[in-house]
Design a protein that fits this description.
Helix Hairpins, 103 residues, single chain, mainly alpha
C-alpha cells in the first residue's frame, strides 16, 4: 500500500509553485497574474502544513498557513479593486499595455 509522505507533498507544492510562476511571467491579463500569485501562496501553504505534520512542530504550520490565507484574501480584494479601477480608466487589463499610470 502506498504511504503518502513528505516527498509527495513537496512534489505537489513544487508543481503548483512552478505553474504559479509560469502564470505570473507569461500572462498579460492582470487577473491571470493574480491567479498565479494565488497558486504560489497555496504551494507555500502546502509546505507549511506538510513540514508541520512531518517535522512534529505542532500547530505552527497550520497557524502560519491560516495567516497566509488571510493575507491572500486581503491581497485578492485589494488587487481586484485596483484591476477594476484600471479597467474603468483604460478599458483594458493587460499589464503590458498600462503605462499611463506614471502621469
Amino acid at each position: 500500500m502506498l504511504q503518502v509522505g513528505l516527498t509527495h507533498f513537496l512534489v505537489v507544492s513544487a508543481i503548483l509553485f512552478s505553474l504559479g510562476i509560469y502564470g505570473i511571467v507569461t500572462r498579460k491579463n492582470a487577473v491571470m497574474v493574480l491567479m498565479g500569485i494565488e497558486l504560489v501562496l497555496n504551494s507555500a501553504n502546502i509546505n507549511f502544513v506538510a513540514f508541520a505534520k512531518y517535522g512534529n512542530y505542532g500547530l505552527g504550520g497550520q497557524i502560519i498557513a491560516l495567516f497566509v490565507i488571510i493575507l491572500a484574501a486581503a491581497e485578492a480584494a485589494i488587487a481586484l479593486a485596483i484591476v477594476l479601477n484600471i479597467y474603468k480608466t483604460f478599458a483594458n487589463v493587460n499589464v503590458d499595455e498600462i503605462d499611463k499610470l506614471k502621469e
